[in-house]
Amino acid sequence: MALLEVRELVKHFPVRGGILNRTVARVHALNGVSFDVARGEVLGVVGESGCGKSTLGKCLIRLLRPTSGSVVYDGTEIGGLGHGALMPFRRKVQMIFQDPYSSLNPRMTVHAALKEIVRFHRVVRSGEIERYVGELIAKVGLRPEDGEKYPHEFSGGQRQRIGIARALALQPEFLVADEPVSALDVSIQAQVLNLLMDLKDEFGLTLVFVSHDLKVIEHFCDRVLVMYLGSVVEQLACEALHEGARHPYTQALLGANPIDDPGQRRPLTVLAGDVPSPFELPPGCAFAGRCPLVHERCRTEAPPLVERPPGGSVACWEVK
Q1: Are strands 76-77 and 68-73 parallel, antiparallel or unpaired?
Q2: Which residue has the higher pLDDT, 20 or 33?
Q3: CA atoms within 13 A on the CB side of 76
Q4: How sure is the predictor about 31, in pLDDT bands with cuts at 50, 70 and 90?
């Protein structure tokens, strides 16, 4: 059985206005997303900005309550959990945020922030807290004296290491990493990714790794979920990404990626048209207005996500 099972997940954000502050529109952030994550797997989630990646990650760990659908973690539906039942769930699942500076308390030192988490959740005995926090700081590659510094005294890469230490403080088994390296230099990205890979192997973690960079996804993940405007358009193994991608949107993402060898230049893939408004989704396939394979059925009927040989799933009427 999968560690995480997501079925028909929907999240809409109401937009209020007018004199009576009524709901005048809704942002359709997630539209019927379904997938599984096996224990020990690293699932990548990729797509353009605004496609619902971060919203999905927050719904998985109940930072946001879905509009409808179900999220089953280790056999338990988390949507109906009350405050008391959520506490043990919080210890099992944690999130690494995209902006580590905004997610850290600027008035607390690293040591004090980690110590507060460990004490509140009673991760270790009170006499062992100091030792445990010191081990956490060392585990993510920081020096012992860094524990007495404040967030503004660190670089971006160091802050992200602090965010990773905070996520690991509760000894979780499942992590959602929300674009943890997108704001970092390339060399620092590699250091943070290598750290995550080492920690994943050491602690047997299961990860959902959110990114807009297919090269990072391909390097770090086992399987990739491609999202467009709140829907999953393709799922496939990362090792088959270049040869096995079949949805026109996935192929466009690959075509827009920089290549490693400048001698193998190719024309960049540029999609025509604009992304539809998330306030009013068009009928049919959301990608129809930009798709080079579009035909009349695409504009009126949304394609389901269907398994296609030799592997993976695709939501496209033209893929057989």
Answers
A1: antiparallel
A2: 33
A3: 12
A4: very high
